[in-house]
Structure formats: structure tokens, C-alpha cells
Design goal:
The protein is an alpha+beta fold and 247 residues long. Helix content is 24%, strand content 43%. The chain is built from 5 helices and 14 strands. It has a 7-stranded mixed β-sheet with strand order 6-5-4-3-8-1-14, with no helix packed on it. Strands 9, 10, 11, 12 and 13 form a 5-stranded antiparallel β-sheet that branches.
């Protein structure tokens, strides 16, 4: 009888421990799940005005940057081409204009990334780049927030660029871009992604629109200089929280 009581008590203790453990697991999982969903933050590595003075040495690898966002733009160690992140894949577009997936061990001196979640979407017919920016100006309701912007559709024409890798000692961005490669793309299906920063943040980042482009077949791209788009979808994601890491 005593053994039965002891066994019964032991069973109750085990059951209670199991329930407590399950409860702790549930709370922990909910906390992690909540943290994962709460991703409305733009992460930036390096202030643009500091980077543009010639601070091109990579300070953060792309494995770490992938934890900060699945969408964005930037560059690589030594200003070695343009970076574009789309749907969680990071691409390098070097000065030969041919995109390739970035290695997780490559490093960046400057990057802006976020987890892209569409707040509003619009269909547009035919716009040049100036008209596209004017259209977006009317849709960006807050002039103090940051907006992630994605444009996907047919680009009747797109002019893009990519800088050549620089050598130490690094020159400022104006001098470095004198050797950039410029590409003219025609009748391509592509996505342009990037950000709009408010004027109050000029210098911390580039005020206004800064977009990079990659074709859907991943054969061309670069920093977007000009374009004519047709039958495109424009998506925006408003972001009011911001994290800046100084190298």
C-alpha cells in the first residue's frame, strides 16, 4: 500500500514537472514567435556620409546581415560592385554586370536591409524614372518615416551602374565612381528594390530614392540610374523604427 502511494505521488510529481516544462516551453515559443513577427525595423550598417568618404573596408559579413533583413541594398568590401537582397537572397553585381549570389563570408562596409512586408501596392502603366518618383511622392504619406520600395515589371529600358573594386588607399565616392561601369538594358523583366529616406536623415543615409535593379533571370542589374517601366507593380513598406550600427 505504501509503495502504491509512493508510486502515485511520484506520478503526480512527474506530471506536474511535465506540465510546468510544457508551460515554460509554450511561453518561450510564444516569445520567440512574437520576436520573429516583429520585424518592422530598418537596419543600416555605417552612416552614408562616413562611408562615402572612402571607408570601404568590410566590417560585417553577409551571414550576420541575413539575420537583419531579407530585402535591401549595399555593397561589398572595397566597393566591389552593388548588392541587392530580394526574397532573402543576397546578390553581388560586380563591374562586369553579371549578378552572382553573395557568399555568407563576404563582408560589407555599407548596407541597408529590412524584412519586406507590403503595406500598400499599386499598378502602374508607363512611367519614366522621374514620373515614378513623382507618383511615389504622392503615396508616401509620412515625410518622416522610411519606406522600402519594390518595383517589379517590364523595364522597356533601364540604365544601371556598378563600381569597380577599389584599391587602398581608398578615394571618396565621387572619385571612385569615375571608373564605374554603366549598362543599358532593354525590354527586361526585372525588380528594382531600395529605400526612400526623409530629408531630415540626409547624410545618415541618402535622402530620397536609392534603388538597385536585378533582372528576373538574374543576368543583369546594378544601381538604378534611369528607366522606363511598363505594366509594373509598385509595393511599399513603411518603417518607423531604425537601427544604425557604426563600424
Amino acid at each position: 500500500m505504501i509503495n502504491v502511494q509512493i508510486k502515485a505521488k511520484a506520478t503526480i510529481v512527474v506530471a506536474l514537472c511535465f506540465l510546468i516544462g510544457l508551460s515554460v516551453f509554450s511561453v518561450t515559443w510564444q516569445f520567440k514567435l512574437g520576436s520573429a513577427v516583429d520585424r518592422d525595423v530598418l537596419f543600416q550598417l555605417a552612416a552614408f556620409n562616413t562611408f562615402s568618404l572612402g571607408n570601404y573596408a568590410g566590417t560585417m559579413n553577409y551571414s550576420s546581415l541575413a539575420q537583419k533583413g531579407d530585402f535591401g541594398i549595399g555593397t561589398f568590401d572595397g566597393l566591389d560592385g552593388e548588392m541587392i537582397a530580394l526574397k532573402g537572397v543576397f546578390y553581388q553585381i560586380p563591374s562586369d554586370g553579371a549578378p552572382k549570389e553573395a557568399s555568407s563570408t563576404q563582408t560589407a562596409p555599407y548596407v541597408t536591409v529590412t524584412f519586406f512586408e507590403v503595406d500598400e501596392a499599386f499598378r502602374v502603366s508607363i512611367f519614366n524614372y522621374t514620373q515614378l518618383k513623382a507618383f511615389l511622392d504622392e503615396k508616401l504619406t509620412s515625410k518622416d518615416a522610411i519606406y522600402a520600395v519594390k518595383v517589379n515589371g517590364i523595364f522597356d529600358w533601364a540604365q544601371t551602374r556598378s563600381p569597380q573594386k577599389q584599391a587602398v588607399p581608398y578615394s571618396n565616392i565621387t572619385e571612385a565612381l569615375k571608373t564605374q561601369a554603366v549598362f543599358s538594358l532593354r525590354n527586361v523583366s526585372a525588380s528594382a528594390v531600395g529605400f526612400w529616406f526623409p530629408l531630415c536623415m540626409d547624410g545618415v543615409d541618402y535622402a530620397g530614392y536609392h534603388l538597385h535593379l536585378i533582372t528576373d533571370d538574374r543576368t543583369a542589374g546594378g544601381h538604378l540610374l534611369d528607366c522606363i517601366i511598363r505594366n509594373a507593380t509598385v509595393e511599399i513598406d513603411e518603417t518607423s523604427r531604425y537601427e544604425l550600427v557604426l563600424p
